[in-house]
Every structure is written in C-alpha cells, then in structure tokens.
Design goal:
Blueprint: E1 5-9, E2 12-15, E3 18-25, H1 35-51, E4 58-67, H2 70-80, H3 86-102, E5 107-116, H4 123-130, H5 135-142, H6 153-166, E6 173-175, H7 178-190, H8 201-205, E7 221-223, E8 228-232, E9 235-246, E10 269-278, H9 280-303, H10 309-328, E11 332-343, H11 346-362, E12 366-367, H12 374-380, E13 394-396, H13 398-404, E14 420-424, E15 430-432, H14 437-440, E16 446-450, H15 457-471, E17 474-480, E18 498-503, H16 521-536, H17 545-560, H18 566-573, H19 580-594, H20 596-602, E19 617-623, H21 638-664, E20 667-673, H22 682-694, E21 700-706, H23 714-717, E22 722-725, H24 731-740, H25 748-760, E23 775-781, E24 787-793, H26 797-802, H27 814-822
Parallel strand pairs: 16-21, 16-22, 17-19, 17-20, 18-19, 20-21
Antiparallel strand pairs: 1-2, 2-3, 3-5, 3-6, 4-5, 4-10, 7-8, 8-9, 9-11, 9-12, 10-11, 11-13, 14-15, 14-24, 22-23, 23-24
Helix pairs in contact: 1-13, 2-3, 9-10, 16-17, 16-21, 17-18, 18-19, 19-20, 20-21, 21-22, 24-25
C-alpha cells in the first residue's frame, strides 16, 4: 500500500498523518579525498545517523538517478546566447549530444533524504507505525482525529526548524520544493521515462485540499514475480528490487560505501537506505538479550557434547556490541538497504540485476533477488512509517551505517549551466564549465591552467575563450607572444569580432605610454617611474634616491605642462637645468627610444595608434621580437629590459580593459598566457594582483596559463576560482599543484597521476613532436572546491582540426604513432 501525502507545504509533507521533512544533500567529490578527509566525512555521517532521527522514528535516504534532458539543457545555453552565435552553438550542441549518448552520460545522480519529524504523536499516528493502516480509511470508521495542519505558518515553521536541526550534521542540505516532492512520486511511477505535463493541475491542488492525488501515481503496475511491469504511454518498463541480505563482519571504512559505486556500474540503478532508530535504552536491552541467547545456545550445545566455533563467535560479537553501546551510549539503527533496477526489457533487467549482485559479491555483500515481495518493495520505496516487505532488517551501530552509505559521497565537478567540456573520469558524468559563471554569481572568474609544453593548455584556452565569446555578450584581450592566437582572425564564427592589433615599434609609437592608457594621474606617474627605473637597470633594493628624485621632477614637469607622455618626460630629464646625472639618464632613454621596442613605450603618442576597446569582441595583441630572458637568468641587455617593461605595459592595459568592462557592465576577461613573464617588474606584479582581484568581481575574469604551478605566486595560485592542472614535471611542482587544489599532500593517487600526466601529455615525452590527440586529461578544482580528474575533448572534428596548435609537427610515422598510443597519449 502506498500512502500519498495529504498535505505538502514547501519541504514538509504529511504522510498518513506523520510529518516528513525532505531535502537534497549537497554532493561532494569523494575520490580525491585523503584518508584523513574521508575519515572526517565518515565522522560527519556517523553523527548524522546517530542524531538525525529521534528514537522510534523512520528515515529514508535515496541515491536517485535522473534522466537529464541534455537537449533542453543545451538549448538553454543557446537561448541565453547572442543571436549572431546561436546557429553555431546549435551545431556544437548536436555534436555534444552525440558524444553524451555514446558515453551513456545522460543521467545525473543526487541524494534525497526524507526524515520523520518529532511531533506530539496521536493514537492513530502510533498505530500507523505498527500496522499497514491507511489513515483516511480508519477515519471513516472511528471519525476524524487531530492531524497537523501545514496551512498554519507556525506549525510549518516548527517542522522546518526541526528538520534543519536533524540534518545539521550534514552541512548544506537544500530543502526541496513542494513541486519537487510531488515529482519524486511521479518519477517513481515512470522510472526515468518522460513525465507527462500536468499543467495547472499541480498548482490548483495546493494547498492540497483535494482528496484525489491519483495524478501522482497514474500508471498501472503488474507484479510478475521477480519483477514489476509498469505500463506507460511510452511502452512497458520493468523494475526489480535487490535487497541486501547480509553484510560482512568486517567493514573497512572509509572506502566501503555501497552507494558511491552505483553510478560507475553504468546501469539504471538507484539505492535506498531505510532505517528506524532505536534509542540507547532499547539498544542496550536488545544487545543484552542477544548476548543471553548466544550464551544459552552455547551452553545447550555444550550439554550435548557438540561444541561449535560459530556459537563462540556469536557470543563474542554480542558482548562486543553490548560493550560498544554502553561505552558510547549509542543508539541502534535497524537498517534496510534496497537497490532498484530498471530496464526496457526483461532480458536487459536481468543482466543489470546480475551485474549489481556480482559487484556486491566482490565486496562480501550478500544480495537477494526475491520473487515474493517485489510489489511490497515497490510500495515501500516511497516514505511511510510502516515497512511492508518481510526482510531483511540488519541491526547496525551508527558508524557502520555511515560506512555502508555516506550521504553526499558522489563525484561531481563543474558549474551547473556551462557548456560541456568533457567527462569526469571517476563516474563518466558530464563536466561543464563557463568562464563567466563565477562573476555572474558573485564568485571568482579567475582561472589558473598549468601544464607542460604539449599538454594541451593552448587548446583548452581556445575552448574557454570561444565559449565565453559565443554564449554571453563579452569581450576579451589576448596578448599573443608566440603567434598562437593569430588564428582567431580566421575563426568560422567570431572572425568579424576579432581585432588583430600589431604592436610593432617600427609601425606604431607610444602605444603603451602610461599617460594614455586611462590611468589616473598618480597611477600614471608611478608606472612612468617604474618604466624608467627598470629600463635603466635601477634595482628597487639599490635605488639611488638622487636619481629617483631627478626622474620624479621630470615627470612632474611633463604633467604640469599638459598632455604628458613618456617622450616629454625624457625631454624634461635632459633639460639644461637638470643635474648631469639626469641628462645622462635622458641620453640612455633616447637610445632606447630609437629602438623598435622602445618606441612602443617612449615614442611620441600617435592618436591613430591608440588601442580602442570595443563594447564586445576580441582583441589580439601581436607582440613580436621580444627579447625576454629565460626564467632565472639575469637581465643584461637593454633589449631585454625593454621587453620586460613592455610586459608591464601589457599588464597595465589588461587592468584598464577589465576596469572599463566592469564600469560598463560587459563581461570582460584577459588571457595571461606565459604568466610568469608578467610579474618580472614591481609594477607588473602590482597590476597582475589588481587583475586577479578584479577577477573576483562582477563582469570581470582572468585566465592565467603557464607551465609550472611555481610560475604563479602563491596568493594567486591558492585563490584561483578554478585550478586546472594538465600534469606536473617533478615532485615540488606536484606538491604545489596539490596545495592549490587543497587536496591532502599524502594522497598518493593524485600525486602519482599528476606526474604521470606530466610525462604522457608533453612534447618531450613524444620525442619533440606534437602527437594529435582527441582529448587531454587534467585535475580540476571548481568554485565549490570539488576536485576531480576530467577528460577534456572537442567533439567536432572540424574544430579539432582548426585548433591544432602545431600541425606541422604531427607528421609522425606509423611506428612513432604506435609507440605514442602504447604510452597512453
């Protein structure tokens, strides 16, 4: 017998006269937890199963599989996108739908909990817990009895507070809406098939005053022995229930959790943990009774001179259980664990049932596929205070209950609305990411990507930028140091929105002059001072204050005369009334001014050369002939110092680009590839820090990419909204990556995988050649600090070809291709 709710308000439902609170447990990534962190989660779960119910009450926790309508999900992205890009997004979505179907990743899982709430029990409520009595039927015989009325706000709030208190040990539990609870009943009937629309019917039923709730269970069912047949408009659907009959004596926790592995099996399987809590006194009495029975049995066996080790073991276990209950004053959970399997045909259903039973058997768990109680299990899947099927009830202490099913232990990474980017390796779920998601929700849109040469950083940058430009009104600024980003001018869809700005001092002059970058006067003076000091090689620790005063005097004079520029500052520095040291500095700067690199900074400002920021679109700054020293090398030549000053100017330009976007309300982002180069000067570091702070503000984003985690300062690395690591080169870099992802440094699995990816996903590993790959793997930390191993891919073959970063190096012979395949590249 299924008891339908008589009332539902928000997340409280009255079921056969008893209030139940409903919630969705926040999922967390389990596979990347260290042993210590997993033990902490186990402790939280133990506390929940110890205090989540009051003695005598009933709790339900489901691991629910929901068929995701990915076409609708991806259509939502198209609807939010600018009109000019919708057709291209539709084509991309079609490719993703094919891949999602191939990967069988249409479903998502979540934990739902329904807990009986404390109330003043009436006679009828107590009776309904002991017998399969329908309250409505008995009321027709004995008359109306008092029942909770949720239309009184005071009563509703009282139950909501009780529910919040009972789930407080689990952290964040989202209260379900009344419509979600109603759909939970309907989904049970349709088992993942398309739910028929109910239009205004649901809304008209609130506040649930009508007796007819048949719309919750509209389908007839037929008990066919070992399975249930559900007749739906889409055809028959078959369901079977597999209860756990026996658990092993020893459970290694954490790591035993039965529900966590269910998504990995790939079938249409869901789980239910049903428990009734016995209080400390009842538990102690029950354990004492078990011990007496075991002792009596052993004594009787001894009298007939037929001793058995099994009897000794049972007596020892009963004594240990009693001792544990007394020591910790622990309650006892009468536990039932049921798995629900759905299939389109009886054969498909039987195969899935066998796969599940075999998997449980490898864990030492005995599962049973009964043929007598399938109808009762179908009814009891929905919450009630009365349990219909005969067996199996397993008494468990709270810590063992937690080890069997840890609430929320379900690998999930990414944001909820972004375009697909790949799949989570642990369970095959879809990974979604959108650069603007953080800023749209008052979180960070600051992303750090690290990986060795050839690991796929640049291709991933292309994908992220492409999605940002096509899905929201946005603009981006990409300094191009190596010629990797010129291809944006040929992009099939975005080429009309791309500006290629060539920063060549032989053609343009004064482009990076701080007095013409939109800075306020004081900021422009500070940047001008840093430009000159770094060009002259004056270290910040060894400044000659007389020289600094000369520079500041020249800057003040240039500003005072109006329309200042770095060229005017040099003129003022060389004035006759300045000190001889100042005139010597002016001569050095004039020599720098004559060089193509120097003209970008110190040349006369040309109005036609100024960079103008569009409202939306992509600016690619083509920087050529930079003479940047390698990391750790000393700066010796003037061209090297000028190159570093230019990168400081680019940092200033990036910051102003983001500030203007923030003021105008347009999502703006900067791509800082080869990030370490931007932080080689004092002003460059200051500007980058400001960029990252803006990346935590609305309408701003920053995409940082570099080879090693050590290239990124710790304050930026450890505060990244997203951190993506495509592999590491050595032990120290691996530890820095793990710190940035906030995973335990003792987690050997992540440590070894990062090093493995660093070897496989690198040009060096492929003998200096860029082997064509359809995908790449990386560990990802998202905005919720969830970490998982993700396989990134581009489903459209034409876009994979377009985004090849080094096509000329991909001409490998058959032997080399085979060798690359063998090492997993």
């Amino acid at each position: 017998m299924i008891h339908l709710p008589s009332e539902i308000r928000e997340n409280i439902a009255i079921i056969n006269g008893v209030p139940f609170g409903w919630g969705r447990i926040e999922s967390y990534t389990y596979s990347t937890l260290s042993e210590q962190e997993a033990n902490s989660k186990l402790n939280d779960a133990t506390n929940f199963f110890r205090r989540g119910l009051y003695p005598g009450a009933t709790g339900y926790m489901w691991l629910v599989r929901k068929e995701q309508d990915w076409k609708d999900e991806l259509d939502q992205i198209v609807k939010r996108a600018p009109k000019a890009h919708r057709r291209t997004l539709e084509q991309s979505n079609e490719a993703w739908l094919r891949v999602i179907e191939e990967q069988q990743a249409r479903s998502r899982y979540e934990f739902i909990v329904a807990l009986e709430l404390r109330q003043q029990q009436s006679f009828l409520s107590n009776l309904s817990q002991l017998l399969p009595i329908d309250r409505n039927g008995i009321e027709r015989v004995i008359g109306k009895t008092p029942a909770p009325l949720l239309n009184k706000n005071r009563v509703l709030q009282q139950y909501q507070r009780a529910f919040a208190k009972q789930v407080s040990q689990l952290g964040d539990v989202e209260a379900l809406e009344a419509e979600e609870i109603a759909n939970f009943y309907r989904q049970h009937s349709y088992q993942g098939l398309t739910l028929p629309p109910i239009g205004d019917t649901l809304r008209s039923l609130f506040p649930w005053e009508r007796r007819d709730k048949s719309f919750l269970l509209p389908n007839p069912i037929e008990d066919e022995g070992k399975r249930i047949r559900i007749d739906t408009p889409d055809g028959p659907q078959y369901v079977a229930y597999i209860p756990v009959a026996l658990l092993p004596d020893k459970i290694l926790a954490p790591g035993f959790d039965l529900m966590y592995d269910i998504p990995n099996l790939g079938g249409n399987i869901q789980g239910l943990l049903h428990w009734q809590q016995k209080g400390y006194r009842q538990s102690k009495t029950m354990a004492g009774r078990h011990k007496k029975v075991a002792k009596s049995n052993r004594k009787h066996v001894a009298e007939v001179d037929d001793p058995s080790l099994i009897d000794d073991d049972q007596e020892i276990e009963a004594e240990l259980m009693e001792a544990e209950i007394v020591r910790s004053k622990s309650p006892m959970n009468n536990l039932r664990m049921i798995f629900q399997v759905s299939g389109d045909t009886p054969t498909d259903l039987d195969e899935q049932c066998k796969a599940l039973i075999d998997d449980l058997d490898t864990k030492g768990v005995t599962a049973h596929h009964p043929s007598a109680d399938q109808g009762e299990y179908y009814d009891s899947w929905l919450p009630s205070t009365y349990w219909g099927p005969m067996g199996y009830k397993i008494p468990q202490l709270p810590d063992r209950t937690a080890a069997i099913a840890m609430p929320g232990a379900l690998d999930v990474v990414g944001d909820p609305i972004g375009p697909p980017k790949g799949f989570l390796m642990s369970n095959g779920s879809v990974f979604r990411f959108h650069l603007a998601w953080g800023s749209q929700n008052d979180q960070s849109s600051h992303v750090v990507i690290t990986g060795r040469i050839g690991s796929g950083k640049t291709t991933l940058i292309y994908q992220i930028v492409e999605d940002a430009m096509m899905t929201v009104p946005a603009r981006g600024l990409i300094p191009d140091l190596k010629g990797d980003h010129e291809r944006w001018a040929d992009h099939p869809t975005l080429k009309e929105d791309v500006q290629l700005v060539e920063l060549d001092g032989r053609k343009v002059s004064g482009v990076l002059c701080p007095f013409h970058l939109g800075l306020d006067e004081q900021e422009a003076k500070e940047v001008a001072l840093d430009y000159i000091e770094h060009t002259l090689g004056l270290d910040r620790e060894q400044r000659v204050f007389g020289l600094q005063n000369d520079i500041m005097t020249a800057i003040e004079r240039a500003v005072g005369k109006g329309n200042p520029s770095m060229a005017r500052v040099i003129e003022e520095l060389g004035s006759e009334d300045m000190r001889e040291e100042a005139r010597e500095m002016s001569q050095t700067l004039r020599r720098a001014q004559d060089l193509p690199l120097g003209r970008l900074i110190f040349g006369e400002v040309q109005e036609e050369s100024k960079i103008r920021f569009p409202k939306t679109g992509l600016i690619v700054l083509r920087l050529r002939n930079l003479k940047l020293p390698k990391k750790g090398e000393s700066v010796v030549r003037l061209s090297q110092r000028l190159s570093e000053v230019i990168m400081t100017g680019i940092s200033v330009l990036n910051r102003q680009f983001l500030l203007e976007g923030k003021e105008n309300g347009t999502f703006s982002f900067s791509v800082l590839d080869e990030f370490e180069i931007y932080t080689r000067t004092r002003t460059g570091s200051d500007q980058v820090n400001e960029i990252i702070r803006l990346g935590r503000s609305k309408f701003c984003g920053a995409l940082v990419a570099t080879q090693n985690p050590s290239d990124v300062p710790s304050n930026i690395r450890n505060n990244a909204g997203y951190f993506i690591c495509l592999g590491t080169s050595d032990s120290e870099e691996t530890k820095l990556a793990m710190k940035a992802m906030e995973v335990d440094l003792e987690h050997s699995g992540i440590y070894e995988k990062l090093l493995e990816l660093g070897k496989k996903q690198s040009t060096k590993a492929n003998k200096g050649r860029a082997v064509a790959r359809k995908d790449s793997q990386a560990y990802v930390k998202d905005l919720a600090n969830r970490v998982g191993l993700v396989k990134f891919l581009i489903p459209q073959a034409e876009m994979r070809e377009f985004w090849k970063t080094r096509p000329e190096l991909e001409e490998v012979d058959e032997n080399e291709a085979q060798e690359a395949e063998e090492v997993g590249v």
